[in-house]
């Protein structure tokens, strides 16, 4: 890769207001630097700043203006400081100012950093975080416990006595147990808020809507999160909210290779080709791999293939992720 030429291409995209293309090219360039252990030049650092990816700045090799940006975008996220990227900082500022925001952003966006920074800055008394699953409840609890357990009571189950300062984390069904116990809510955070619509989740929708209505009477600030939403309807739940579409702000770049288009023949031949392609990908890949399977029979086929064709060693540990319904996610491993 010609680093200077890549920088020239990125700069051309920025001049043409093609920021998504510029950021994608920059992420590929940074990956090249990391794989080849090359230090960022002042030029590369400047392009990082121009695309808003402030956490990626290398303060040691940046000029003073870029180092200044790196420092001023640092915030306390609970016991330590981290530099936010441009869009995270924008969301945080608006939440701190009391705006109600519904944001659609990719999973790489770092929405949890905004939550942690808000808690550190505003020091709220009651934070309610509604997540779609028990697994996410525990994951969120572990993250926040490490940062805020010294001054907050982290509540994830029912019938817990409240403290002066509380962070509630649970699925919407459990939220109803605290509706009459919480006097006021400084911020209500709802992950995957689009599931309040029966179109997306008939099971979760009624209880989530009920929780929003009941808790809404005590809320000061709302922060609703979701991936892949391009707009929100005008309804009683979101009428006082500003919608922020951050889908274009990726902090990772995804290469897509549509190998399935190369598969031909009858059913048996296609299955054999699928297996060969998968094994070739795994053999050529030096990093960790995540395999998606569409059904239990497909999981069995893939697991049998891996067991038969790949040598088992201490370095081989594979997982298959099966996605079924939007609310269903399952990990199995060997």
Helix/strand layout:
Blueprint lengths: L2 H13 L3 H17 L6 H9 L13 H9 L1 E3 L4 E3 L2 H11 L4 E4 L6 H12 L3 E5 L3 H15 L4 E3 L10 E5 L1 H4 L9 E7 L13 H12 L2 E8 L15 E4 L21 H18 L6 E3 L2 H14 L9 E5 L5 E5 L1
Helix pairs in contact: 1-2, 1-3, 5-6
- Beta content comes to 15-25%
The helix/strand class is: alpha/beta
Rounded mean pLDDT score: 84
Strands ordered across the widest β-sheet: 5-6-4-7-8-3-9
Number of domains: 3
Kindly report the name of the CATH homologous superfamily of the largest domain.
P-loop containing nucleotide triphosphate hydrolases
Poorly predicted segments: 322-334
* Rg (C-alpha, Å): 23 Å
Query: What is the total tally of β strands?
Result: 12
Could you characterize the architecture of this molecule?
This protein has 334 residues and is an alpha/beta fold. It has helices at 3-15, 19-35, 42-50, 64-72, 86-96, 111-122, 134-148, 172-175, 205-216, 267-284, 296-309, and strands at 74-76, 81-83, 101-104, 126-130, 153-155, 166-170, 185-191, 219-226, 242-245, 291-293, 319-323, 329-333. The protein has three domains: 3-72; 81-245, Rossmann fold; 259-333, no CATH class. The protein has eleven helices and twelve strands. A hairpin with a 4-residue loop joins strand 1 (74-76) and strand 2. Helix 1 packs parallel to helix 3 (42-50) and helix 5 runs parallel beside helix 6 (111-122). The protein starts with a helix and ends with a strand.
């Amino acid at each position: 890769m010609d680093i200077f030429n890549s920088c020239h291409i990125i700069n051309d995209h920025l001049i043409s207001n093609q920021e998504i293309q510029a950021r994608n090219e920059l992420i590929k360039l940074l990956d090249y630097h990391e794989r080849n252990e090359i230090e960022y030049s002042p030029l590369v650092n400047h392009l990082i700043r121009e695309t808003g990816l402030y956490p990626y700045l290398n303060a040691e090799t940046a000029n003073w203006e870029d180092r200044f940006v790196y420092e001023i975008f640092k915030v306390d996220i609970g016991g330590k400081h981290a530099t936010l990227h441009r869009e995270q900082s924008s969301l945080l500022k608006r939440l701190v100012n009391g705006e109600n925001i519904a944001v659609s952003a990719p999973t790489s966006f770092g929405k949890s950093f905004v939550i942690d920074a808000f808690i550190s800055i505003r020091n709220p008394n009651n934070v309610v975080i509604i997540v779609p699953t028990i697994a996410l409840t525990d994951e969120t609890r572990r993250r926040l416990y490490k940062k805020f357990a010294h001054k907050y009571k982290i509540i994830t189950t029912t019938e817990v006595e409240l403290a002066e300062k509380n962070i509630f984390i649970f699925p919407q069904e459990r939220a109803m147990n605290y509706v009459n116990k919480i006097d006021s809510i400084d911020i209500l955070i709802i992950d995957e808020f689009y599931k309040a619509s029966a179109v997306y989740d008939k099971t979760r929708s009624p209880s989530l809507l009920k929780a929003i209505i009941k808790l809404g009477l005590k809320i000061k600030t709302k922060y609703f999160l979701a991936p892949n939403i391009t707009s929100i309807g005008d309804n009683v739940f979101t009428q006082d909210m500003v919608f922020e579409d951050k889908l274009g702000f990726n902090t990772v770049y995804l290469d897509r290779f549509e190998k399935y288009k190369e598969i031909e023949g009858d059913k048996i031949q296609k299955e054999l080709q699928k297996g060969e392609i998968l094994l070739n990908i795994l053999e050529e890949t030096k990093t960790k791999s995540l395999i998606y399977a569409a059904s239990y029979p497909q999981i069995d086929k893939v697991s049998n293939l891996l067991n038969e064709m790949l040598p088992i060693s201490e370095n081989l540990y594979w997982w298959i992720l099966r996605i079924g319904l939007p609310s269903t996610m399952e990990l199995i491993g060997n």
